[in-house]
Specification:
The protein is of the alpha+beta class. 17% of the residues lie in helices and 43% in strands. The protein has 3 domains: 2-58, no CATH class; 100-183, C-type lysozyme inhibitor (Lipocalin), CATH 2.40.128; 185-290. The chain has helices at residues 2-9, 31-40, 43-48, 50-60, 78-91, and strands at residues 108-115, 118-124, 129-133, 136-143, 149-153, 156-161, 164-169, 172-183, 193-199, 204-209, 214-219, 224-236, 241-246, 253-263, 270-279, 282-290. The longest helix has 14 residues, at 78-91. The radius of gyration is 40 Å and the shape is elongated. Residues 66-94 are annotated as: Disordered.
Length: 293
């Protein structure tokens, strides 16, 4: 029997065709030998036929995808995404920040230590006084007074004489002593910046561009420099509050700005905004100021 099989395997079928599609590397020559060989090796072909065998073969083997299969969706190229983000960033404009974050026409911020225990910040303009406390920001108009300078808004009044001041409201009276003053930041000294904030331990600083929604961060004493687009999560003009988040999901951060008396914890300088920056699971706290043109 084995001799006959070898002789069959050594001969090709007419025209070199192989009815088994080359699956076993053997062929047949005539009908008689086809019956003999099929009965010995692949009798299922006689019952099911070649098309059925082909179908079973595709089902049982890992075949390459056919050209009729739907192509896989293209992967997102980070370079293209960056270009699109950059284009959108250039087309957008920076938001208008609440006026309570700015000194107005004032050239200086003045810090006051008051009794009972409270700290205030003021900025004197030509026609108004801006006042910041732990509870928010206020704008007072000039009022008639025999001596010194007095400003009032409703039942809130601020009356200063030299380095001393009296603040009255429906909640009571404060006796205040001026303890520090410094010049407000200007666009001339900080071109292209509409808001700046800084803090200590570790030293950090952020700046918001005045023409588009981008933030520059200098973190950990300047060891890390970050420049990102941002989006406005919340903005309340009346409360003087702004919350900004990252414009890039892969580099998240949150910046909270709130109008209120703030004092640098090392120098004691007074500022009109309290600032909290959260990035990379770290929290930075400090003070800031809006910078008008």
């Amino acid at each position: 029997m084995s001799g006959r099989v070898l002789r069959i395997a050594e001969r090709e079928s007419p025209g070199g065709a192989n009815p088994l599609g080359g699956c076993y590397g053997i062929g047949t020559m005539d009908r008689e030998r086809t019956r003999i060989f099929a009965m010995f090796c692949i009798s299922p072909v006689v019952r099911f036929g070649a098309p059925t065998l082909l179908a079973l073969g595709l089902a049982g083997c890992a075949a390459a995808p056919s050209s009729s299969e739907a192509p896989s969706p293209p992967s997102v190229d980070s370079g293209d995404a960056s270009s699109e983000t950059s284009s959108a960033d250039q087309a957008s404009k920076a938001p208008l920040l609440p006026s309570a974050l700015f000194p107005g026409e004032a050239e200086r911020f003045v810090g006051w230590q008051c009794e009972p225990d409270q700290s205030l910040v003021t900025a004197h303009g030509e026609d108004t006084l801006r006042l910041w406390s732990a509870h928010g920001a206020y704008r007072l108009d000039p009022a008639v007074v025999a001596s010194g300078a007095r400003y009032q808004q409703g039942d809130l009044s601020f009356w200063s004489k030299g380095s001393e001041a009296t603040v009255e409201s429906q909640y009571g009276r404060l006796k205040c002593q001026q303890n520090m003053r410094h010049r407000a930041l200007t666009r001339e000294s900080h071109p292209g910046v509409m808001f700046q904030a800084r803090g200590n331990e570790p030293g950090w600083m952020i700046e918001l561009a005045n023409d588009k929604p981008r933030i520059s961060m200098s973190l950990d004493y300047g060891e890390r420099q970050v420049n990102l687009p941002y989006q406005v999560k919340a903005l309340d003009n009346d409360a003087g509050r702004v919350v900004l988040t990252s414009g890039q999901a892969a580099r998240p951060f949150e910046l909270r700005i709130e109008a209120g008396a703030c004092f640098d914890d090392m120098s004691g300088q007074p500022w009109p905004a309290r600032v909290t920056l959260e990035v990379n699971d770290e929290v930075y706290r400090g003070c800031g100021q809006g910078i008008a043109p």
